[in-house]
Amino acid sequence: MDAKYLMIDQGGFRVSYRNHLGGMRVAFFKTSDHNEARNETLRMYGDMIDDSPVRIERISLEGNHTHTWTSDNIWDSALRLQWKEYVPLSAYEKAEAKRYARYSRRAGDRS
User: Fold this and answer.
1) Does pTM top 0.85 for this prediction?
2) Which site among 6, 46, 100, 110 is 20 to 30 Å from 55 CA-CA?
3) Mean of per-residue pLDDT scores for the chain
């Protein structure tokens, strides 16, 4: 890991929502998960938000976009994971997946 990342923490959650006048707003929170970011948005700006769709994006420590959650209503607690960063498997993980698939196809393992 490069030393510059030890000094700078760019991670957090970017919450996009609409205010009561219909304008698009974006807030950024350094919380532990997406539900806390939504709750912080409601705590700070809840009186200015009616029924608004919400989009929460997770930004990693290095500043990369890794996850996206959405909901049709910011007051609804059921956020759906819409996008997740693709991380390719290492050679070891590929070999383990093949080995698992090979042994799970045995005749004695089937029910």
Assistant:
1) no
2) 6
3) 81
